[in-house]
Amino acid sequence: MNLLVAITGWEVEPWVERFRRLLPDRDIVALGEPFDRRDVRYVASWKHPPGSLAGLPNLDVIFSLGAGVDHLMNDDRLPEALIVRVVDEDLTNRMSEYVVLHCLMHLRQQRRYDEQQRQKIWLDDRFQPAAHEVKVGVMGLGVIGQDAARKLKTMGFDVAGWSRSPRVVEGIATFAGEKELGAFLARTDILVCLLPLTAATRGLLNRSLFAKLARDGRLGGPVLINAGRGGLQVEADILACLEDGTLKAATLDVFETEPLPPDSPLWTHPAVTITPHNAGMSSPESIGAQVAEQIRRFEAGEPLRNVVNPQLGY
Ligand code: NDP
Ligand code: OXD
């Protein structure tokens, strides 16, 4: 057997079927089925149970089936192997759709009109700012962040981005590193987080950061959109900041604990919009093909694409 499919939280069967169609000459097995650990050369993982990949002596490559690899980095018994992540046009497009949708939703105050509709109230008493009057700050200017920033720019928003190392993106003001974080936040009305979860970014979305966002924006207070990872945010701080006006509203796709526990006050907070970690979706069709192509490259001695730097954690 060559490829072990180790998935929790998603349906496994479509992935196994896809890999069997793409790699008919290989043994493909799902974690939980019997297999000889010495036969595994490749693993395709999405949130495999920590420790379950220990003791695979002939493992060469672990493929993350998502863009994020924190699920791998957080397994302290992960075997030594190259780690490859997903960079996928379909996934990137879906993430940008989500970001644009929610920026527009906050710009156009759609939650308020939903409530008015429920109550059959016809009331048009509020000034609507134009997109160019609203400053969006995208944290993380990688594959997804750059795509989202460009699409937000096309919608007319005044867009800036922040990354670890300096990036140049046409038409977008860019900031880098801790030194420039304050200036980036000070010009941000809607903060969009598309960062990976690493030791350096864990808990970054906290009260002290929210307090540095622009206070003079056209939306009546700063808005947070987090589609990166739940571990980036301090949920108690988000709730407290929504209460005292440090934040006006939040859209959250990711949570400290997933699924979001039923007793979380985020569920019922009137200023919070929740989605179940599905801003982007990994499609077995397209990502399966990428994994098969990467295996082909690896075995032909060609360099793998999208290899993760374990020191940086992304
Ligand atoms: P990339 O690796 O392409 O980009 C990551 C960006 O974050 C880079 O710009 C990087 O900086 C920046 N960054 C990393 N660490 C820091 C730091 N300490 N300070 C400042 N900036 C930092 O990742 P992707 O764009 O492909 O994906 C981003 C994340 O989106 C994923 O890791 C995942 O967590 C999340 N995601 C969520 C999904 C969902 O459904 N909710 C779906 C897909 C992804 P630099 O440019 O200098 O390297
Ligand atoms: C990803 C995700 O990282 O879906 O791709 O969260």
Describe the structure.
- By secondary structure, the protein is α/β, with parallel strands linked by helices.
- It has two domains: 2-88 and 282-299, 3-Layer(aba) Sandwich (Rossmann fold); 89-274, NAD(P)-binding Rossmann-like Domain (Rossmann fold, 3-Layer(aba) Sandwich).
- The chain is built from nine helices and twelve strands.
- The protein has helices spanning 13-22, 70-73, 89-107, 110-118, 143-154, 177-186, 207-210, 235-244, 284-299, and strands spanning 3-7, 28-30, 42-46, 61-64, 82-84, 135-139, 158-163, 173-176, 190-193, 223-226, 249-252, 272-274.
- The chain has a seven-stranded parallel β-sheet. Strands 2-1-3-4-5 form a five-stranded parallel β-sheet, with helices on one face.
- Helix 5 (143-154) links the parallel strand 6 and strand 7.
- It is elongated.
- The two termini are 29 Å apart.
- The model has no long low-confidence stretch (mean pLDDT 97).
- The protein binds NADPH dihydro-nicotinamide-adenine-dinucleotide phosphate and oxalic acid.
